[in-house]
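Supplementary Text 2. Reproducibility record for the structural model of the 592-residue chain.

All settings were left at their defaults, and a single model was retained for analysis rather than an ensemble. We include the record here because the model underlies the residue-level annotations in Supplementary Table 4.
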Amino acid sequence: MVAMNELSAVHGSDASQRRLKKRRAAEMRLKAYGIAAIFLAGAALVTLMWSVVGNARYALSESYITLPIELSAEELGVDPSDPSTLRGGSYERLVRDEVRERFDYVEGRTLRRELSDLYSAAAAFDLRDMVIADPDLIGQTIDVRMLASDVTDLYLKGEFGTLRTPDTDADLDFTFDEEDSVAIEASAPIFEDILRDVQRDLVQLSNRREREAGRQEAGRVEFERRAEAAETEEERTRNLEEAQRRADARDALLAEVEDLRARADDPEGFEELTENNESVLIQVNGGWLKATAVSASTATAEILVPLADRNLAGADYTLYVQPVPAIARPISDEKIVWIEELRGDGAVEQVFNWRLFSAGDSRDPERAGIWGAVVGSFWTMIVTFVLAFPVGTLAAIYLEEFAPKNRFTDFVEVNINNLAAVPSIVFGLLGLAVFLGFFGVPRSAPIAGGIVLALMTLPTIIIASRAAIRAVPPSIRDAALGLGASKLQTSFHHVLPLAMPGILTGTIIGMAQALGETAPLILIGMVAFIVDIPGGITDPATVLPVQVFRWSDFPERAFEARTAAAICVLLIFLVLMNALAVFLRKRFERRW
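Retained model, structure tokens:
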């Protein structure tokens, strides 16, 4: 036996204190790692939601352009007394002509094509529906709200930069050099920042040229070495010629470097603006000018919108700077000016985007909606639930209450557990080969997707249901059997009702997993472009996650916002389903 004084001496020794200190330090490190992991996970979640919600906000509103349009029966090519002709009217041409008339100074095929991109192709369809709903509008001039194109909409939301107005009160003197060119002289260096930006670009360009000159010099040295080592006169001559060519290119580049740096250091320089620079726009006397070259206090500009009067002595002006260079945005300076003109006329408005939640898919992002995918997901989930829930529940009851304990039952249980870990795309391959290829189930239909997702969800439901049935106390079964109930009555009248909260919880979690699946549905064709809203389980349809997958692959920038909005809707559905599972578990949970 160890004496207490010896034991106290051991625990109070320096070695014991070091061990205790070490254990406490390990415990503190473990806590720190856990807290750090929680913070990292939280930060990742916040970053994800910030990114998704931040992008989705652009899709929650849409822009409209309002223009007065005369609905002439002759221009439309319709007969007001014959409603059957209204649908085939030339609404698209009428809208295009009215917009061109509003901007009658726009000339050239390229600019006119760009002018037509101010509004969406849906404008003509909306006008057609308006006329069909009220044929008495024919012959009147009405204000027509035209849906803006995706690029126009994003510009109005500030996605491509917002025009900045520098704080300046300098006087400007305008001199018309040519028909479309204006020389501008300011009483203060109001273009100094623009010039400095251009000169920074010159410095960067000179650095690139200097590096290119260095590579040419390295080439010259290499070819001279080859010339010295050449075994034939012909080879030596060829290498010397190449070395000389490299030397000439080097000298030309170095001369360009010297010129660029001299221009970059010149405070009185006068430099042309390129698409890599900020755009400088001047609104004066009802027109718009765009600077093409600047010095600190002078500029030359081209006329984008004709001026009401060229007598600009003492005229008020507004100087705008577009901070995003033209090369970095899909909208030209001309189009920006047209939009600002419409905004100045009060012809632009932004409203909540109900179309996003009520329309089907479209190739045009401003017309695309998620309602078709929501309805497709609904029908697919209905099929999945109808197939997976009863089959999974009955399979669980059989395995827990009736199945004999033998090797075959063990084999089935092991395979059910393994099926829960099988990649979902394997179920898609199964559905493609069996249900579509052999049984001829309609492709791209909710019934096909529902069957595949039911197969995928079955293991989850069976496992959850078996756990819920197993949790029912044996005393319930014993009491029922003791009162004369059969095993079937015991299972369905006593065990199943008590296990139902757990079964429903597992089913909802499995359905939530199925709602977010994409891979198996892509294989059975539910990635197709479906415009119409599905009316049943056999109609062509897509689902929300597949819609997200499709939109994320489109190059148009406006689809980014719609993709984020669709993700938000999908997340809301998933959160609601999980919340319902938690509610059912809390509401009907029994404790023994």
